[in-house]
Amino acid sequence: MNTNQADDALLALAQSFREALRQSVYVMRRLDSEEPLSAAQLGALKMALDGDARVGGIARNLGVKVPSATEQIIKLERAGLLQREADPDDSRAVRVVATPEGRVAVENADRRRNEYIAGILGTLSQAERDAVAAALPVFDKINNSLQNQARN
Amino acid sequence: MNTNQADDALLALAQSFREALRQSVYVMRRLDSEEPLSAAQLGALKMALDGDARVGGIARNLGVKVPSATEQIIKLERAGLLQREADPDDSRAVRVVATPEGRVAVENADRRRNEYIAGILGTLSQAERDAVAAALPVFDKINNSLQNQARN
DNA sequence: CCTAACAGTTAGGCAACCTAAATATCAAGC
DNA sequence: GCTTGATATTTAGGTTGCCTAACTGTTAGG
Description:
The structure is a homodimer.
Chain A lengths: L1 H32 L5 H11 L3 E2 H8 L3 H13 L3 E5 L7 E5 L1 H22 L4 H24 L3
Antiparallel strand pairs in A: 1-3, 2-3
Helix pairs in contact in A: 2-4, 2-5, 3-4
Chain A binds a DNA duplex through α4.
């Protein structure tokens, strides 16, 4: 039947998609393992760059619970890459602000990682790069769906 | 200059690609967190299904070191999902074989995860699904490049 | 034989996540 | 102007999955 065929195609695509996800996790591990700033720390520090990030907001954006964000923030603070300040409007809250060193660290971390990936992308054909570029927004959409659906 | 423009485009694509990778890691965590079989265990168990998998081969396929594979295998063995047997050809080696329960567990785990992803994919337009399907082989190629390049 | 390479396990450690509980502040109702 | 429930964060303690180093046993080449 038509619906079953459609379902099968969808399931097959889902299977391939999952395989790509699995590989991505592996690639991320490799990519980050030799860097001075871990992925978790880079993510948190990036949000501190805006200057008005609070711990809870960082946790939400990173997709982790608040204590996990606190943990990364403490590490970054000890490394001198950001500072925690009292929020003038709400003394329960803590504002997280990157230091100049933190800003430099983010720039370096991003640049190195981007150059590394760009090196790989450069070996592809233009058609392949186009295929990737076309799919990225859809990936984003999928990821957001999954994110919202899994929200407690 | 032309090369600089090309480089810039490549770097921009790399940046978006990295963002997608980051999200993928997050999505995988959500996807696996409510499942009885973890991603690491499902991966190892799948290879045991073929029947002729050895610990080193599983580690290589999972992209982890041998002790990490051993760890997952021991957990799976304790759960009754696979068995370790002496390799008749090489007594240093251990052959890892899934039990019937293990086979069922893989089928269930795969089916549930696939259905979950398929549910999301079903909300996309056909054009979007085509874009994903077109990009997956390229992702695979990229991931393999990164994998080989990062090999020690 | 003997020695180097190989397959696997064990031991110990680290990063990043989690939940539960403690602390402090805010804000709403009476 | 208190009390009480909600909110923001930290602390404490635990889990998972990965790693390296060191150990045991087996194989194979010279």
